[in-house]
Every structure is written in structure tokens, then in C-alpha cells.
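## Example record

The block below lists the input lines for one assembly entry, exactly as stored, with component labels intact.
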Amino acid sequence: MSALACLLLVAAARVQAPEVSVDGPNPAVVKLGGSAVATVSVDASGALSGDLDLLPPEKVPNLLVSVQGPTRQESFVSVRGSIKRTATVSWRVVFLPQTEGVFTHPGLRVRVGSDVIPTRALRVEAVRDVAGSKFAFLEVEIPRESYFVHEPIRVKVRVGLDHSVTSNTIQLQLVAPWLDAMPGTVPMERAASPNSQAIQFPVNEEMAEAARGEPRTRDGRTFDTFVFERAFLPNRVGAIELAAPVLRFRYATRTRPGFFGEREVEAAETAFVYGDARKLAIEPIPEAGRPPSFTGAVGRFRVAAEASPRELRVGESLKLDFRIEGEGNLAFVEPPRLDALEGFHLFGTTEQKTPTRRTITYDLSPLSEQAREVPAIAFSYFDTEKRAFETARTEPIPITVRPLPPGAGLAPLADAADRRAVPGVDDIHDMKPLVGLPPASDASPLDPALVTLLLVSPWAIAGIAWLAVRRRDRDRADPARVRAREAAARFRREIASPSADPASAFAGYLADRLSCSPAAVIAPDLEDRLAARGLDRDLARRAASRLTRAIESRYGGASSATDGLAPLVDEIESAFRAKESAR
Amino acid sequence: MMSLAAIALLAWATRSDVEADYRAGNYAAALAELRSKIDASPDPDARALYDAGNCAYRLGRHSEAAWLYRRALLRTPRDEETRFNLRLAEHKLGYEPPQTEPLVESMRQWLATRSPRSMLAVALALETAGLAGLLAFRRRAGPRTLALLVLAAAFVAGGIVARPLVAPPRLQAVVLSKESRVRSEPRDDLPVVLTLKAGETVAVDETSERWARVRHAEGRGWVPRDDLGLVN
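Predicted C-alpha cells for the full assembly:
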């Protein structure tokens, strides 16, 4: 019953699936730089759970798609005395083509509960606005096509507006996303606007200040120009592609005097003008010839130093101003470190920074009157024009250091105790004599095969030794087994002797095998006992008969006592061994 | 023979120039001379690396000094002076070795200063002693346990010897720049997941022309290749 109710509910939900409609995109043909808008609406009047969503739109190359919303509209209408509720949920979808051409979006998808309802495909065409270039121009100035990594890229954007249009311009916007975040670079600090006649207009989504430039004449028309600059520091090697910027401006085409005498816009038009796309190559700074004092300065720099006072006593402080000026990544440069300047102690540094100059002030103190000058300070940088590393040096600055008055001494430095640094305690061990370092050969890698062999061989030896020990232990535990095992050998030893008694040797062999005394072997039941020990009946009979004959020969009853005895023992031994191994 | 003597003489002459510069406090010149020698050689010797580390230390470039000392230690793991200088350079950078139990620390020190050959000898000696003890005292529980412990120690020593042969040691690097930003992917526009400071040691999983994928106790990611100095 409940299953039936569920089915009915599902069926009802299917029946009440909402309608999804799309209006637009409007306009279907847009000027490049402009946008088209489509509205997606869902009738939410039915028994919806409210779980409505527009899924993220699929990406189409060179077409930016953004979604705004949702917006809910609800109304109640009285129909024949009953109140009817209607509800609509809608989204605004903005299409912004990045290049000329026809763009077809595969359609948007609305999620209603667990269902996804697709819309129809949406088509937008983008064409260049040819009219805009009559009233404006847009130039992007980047001095070069190729830069080194960490070399500043200075971009100058110049906007030109027809003088007659300037005063009628209502809106102005520059769209170039890379001006906010150029890929592969970090933005550098912006310099202040160079003149007071700056204007402000949006660059992408933020207001930016542009300086008024010199008017330009093009095709007999005068253009007011506005310039703003950006600088970027590339931090990776490769190519940077900058899309063509677009200037969007709206100007009044017809005005009328307003109530207070001001001009009111009666008709206006939106136009677009385009700059050129650019491609920059970022090269790496070469490794070859890189000086040890290079700390990442890229550009062209000059250095200078001044010291004051030039006359001082030992232990007194002098200020050394070290200036770095020039074009380059000045803000990112690490200044030279003078911690280890010989004959001086560095108390500290302070710094003043402007976009074109850095002044580092070192607080130095001569440690003895032997100091005659502040040595030249080297500053290495990569010269992008010469494409080579350069080292600029300051001139040595002569100073006069007077000794301390008799009896006076230097106060201990703040960061040093009144004792000398001791190598191995609070100072490094210095350079060593030529025999100082231990030989490095013992750190060389080992041959894996040799290591394996060496590590495995003790185990192999131990295994063999263990087998031997195990055998010895078993022998100790079972002497009869040892006796039986060694019976054949003992027989051969005895039979090989010149004074051998074959009967005794053979009886001894059989006694060893039967674990009894030799005298107990000689008995009528020998055949049965041998057979009971595993010999086949025939061999047992032959052995018993051969022993009888051997004994008889001892007393002169038979001849050729040893003939065939050894092969017989071998045969018996083989039979015993076969039986033992089978066991 | 003559050419060997000439090479030795040249090395001695270079060394005396460097030493003269160093003794005169001209550390930058000494370092430049040593770095040119180190960079030109596919397998620079420990002495040059040690001396270059000293020059870098005297110049206050402690991260570079740490990097050079680490490279020297790979070649002369038993050299206590290099080890001390490395510790001092790291101390200057603000890194202190973690406090461990004295026994563990002395064990670690002992292991760190063993060459592969001496470790192999130790492993073989322990292995032989353990196996012999096991055979000789197989029926006596006390000595047998001792022999098993010796054998276990032999396994550990053998493992230490065999490990670099089975799995070659991971590339290590020292951060040379003032700070290095670690990103989740090799792209500058991605957010920074971790910032490494100068002198920190990281394991390097792979490198490309511009980037290196590194592993650090606090995370992993990609840093610009130029920020690092590879140790091995």
C-alpha cells in the first residue's frame, strides 16, 4: 500500500515538473566589448521543494559567461474566490565575447530536486565596432617584446578621445583583465600621477587615475589623450600573452538645455575601440658569469656612497649612505650586507626608499685607528641592455680615525661578549691546512652485489654449520645408527688388511647392521633376521649362506673365502640404504 | 706522472690564493674563486666546499654557507668541524637542532659519521657473532636471546647499509633565497601554501627548468628552482 502511495507521489512530481524558459541572449549580435544577456526563468508555482539551482555554465573558448541571481517573484491572484499563487525563479546570464566571431553555448542546466533540465543552445555573435575608432583610439605601449625575468615591464596605456566627444562622454571604461593581474608577474608599486589634470575612469572593475597627455591630431581631428601607467615584475620564464584591450565609451549624440540651464542628454550611443593584443617573451637570467655578490638586481644601476663624519675616534659611529639609483627592480633588490666589513663593526642599517632610489644608511664604527678608509662597496646586477652581469663599485672613502685617549678602552659591543670568539664554541672552524680533511674515499658508494654477497655469506656458512651440528647431535643420540651407517666402511677396512678374517669381517658387518654382537650373528635364524630388517628373502638367504661358507673356510671346509664377499656387502648395503631412505 | 704533479701544483697554487684572500678578510674574492672551481666540477671536493662555506659564513650569507657545508658533509661525513660549522650557520639562521635523548643523539651522531664501508663491517661482525652465538648456545636460553639481539642489531646495520642501495637517497636542497613561497602547483598565480625561510632543508621530489617540487615537515608543493641549492 505504501509502495503504491510512493509511486503516486513520484508520478505527481513528474507531472508537476516545472517549465524552464530562456529569453535571449539579447542582443544576439553584440559589439566586441559589449555583452548580451539571457534570462532563464523557472515556473516555481507547483509543489516544488524550493531546491532550485542553475548549474555552473559550461565553458566556451573566448566567451565569458557569468550568472547573476537567482531572483524570486511571487504573486497571489484571486480566481473565483480562491487564492492562486504563482512563483518564478530567474537568473540573468551575461555573455561577454572576448574575440570576434559566433559563439554557441551548449545550453544552461537547471537543477530541480534530483532532476536536471537543460535549456536550448544559446548563440551570440560578436562583431568589431567600426564606428568607435572615429571618435577614440587606444594604444598600449610596451617598449620591448622580450624581457628578462625580474626585469620590470612598464606598460603605458594611452586613451585618445575626439575633442568634440570628450565633453559629451557619459561613461568610459577600459577592459583589459591583464592590467589588474598580468599572468606570470607581480604588480609593482604605482608611481603617483604626473600631473594635476588627472581624470578617473574604471579600468576593469576599479577606478584608476589617468594623467592628461599632449593632444594628438589624427586625420585632421584633435584628440585629447589620457595616459596611465602600470609596471609588472615577471617572475617566471616563458611567454605572456596579453589580450587586446577594449575601451567602452558612451557619449551623448543629442542634448537639450535642462531646467537649470544644464545640458540634459536626449540621445546617447555606446561605442567601442580596440587596442592590439601583445605577446611578450620572458627570458631567464643566465647562470654563466653570475657574480657571488649578485642578489637579484636586474636593470641598470648606479651606486654612490657618502660617509660622515670623516674624522672620528675609534669606537665612534659614522653613517655611511649607500645609494642605488637606476631603472630596474629596485624595490626588490637586497642591498649589500656589511656585517663582515673588515675593521668595522656594523651597528645596524636604516633605509629610505623611493621608486627610483634606495638609500641604505649603515651605522659603522671603526675598530682601530688602522682604518684609513671605508672600502669600496660592490653591487652586482644583471644589465639587461648589455645582457651581462655588471658590478658597480663605490669609491673608497678616506677617513681619519684617531686613537682612544690613553687609558681609555672600547666598551664591549652590544652583541659581543668581552672575549674573542672561539672556533668550535661560538665561531666556525677556519680554513684547514691541506692535510686537514679526512679522505673522502670511504664515503664512496658500495657495489650492491658485493654487499649482498657479504651479507648473505654468514647465513650460508651458518646454515652449513647448523646441518653439521644437527647431524652430530642425532648421531650422539643414536649410536646404533652410526654403527649401521659406518658398517660397510669398517668391513672394507678390515677386509683390506693382509691378515683379514673374511668370516669375522662379514660377521662384524652383519652385527653392525643388526645391532648385535658378532657372535650373535652366527645363528640358524640369520636369514629370518635379515629379512625382518628389510632385505629381500633371496638376498638374506645368500648372505646367511655366505657367512656359513666363510666360517667353514676358517676351519678348512671351503676355499676362496673373500671371493664375492665385497660385492655381496655392497648389495646388502644398497638394499639397507634404499630401505632407510624410503623410511 | 708529470701531469699529476702539475695538477697538484696548480691546486696548491689556487688554494694558497684563496687562503691568502681568506686570511686577508677578502671573503668575497675567495668565495668567487672557490665557487668558480666548485661550479666547474661535476664532483667538487669537500675541501673546496668547506672553504666556500666558511667564506659564505664570514660574508653573513648563512643559508649559502649551510648549503655548502651540507654538500661537504656528503663527501666527508666524519668531519666534525664541518658538522660544527653547519650547526653554527643554522643557528645563525635561527634553527636549532631538535632536543633528543642523549643516548638517541649519540647514536644518531655515531650513525651519521659512519661511512658505508664501516657500517658494512659492523653489520658483518654483528651478523657473524649473532649466528655463531645462536649455533653455540642453541640450548641455553639466556645466551641464545643475547645472540638473537645481536642478530637483530645486525639486521638494523645491514638495513642501514642496504637502504641507499635499494632506495637511493632523496634529493635534498637548502633554501638560499631570503624566503621561498611554496605553491600547490608550479604556477605563480596560485596562492602560497607555505613559506620557507632561508637555510631550511627540504626534500626534493622532482625538478623542472623553473620549479622544484619539495617536501617539508609542514607541507609540500612547488617552489621556484632558483630559490634552492641542491645538496646531492
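Confidence is low (pLDDT under 50) at residues 6-15 of chain A. The first helix of chain A runs from residue 2 to 15.
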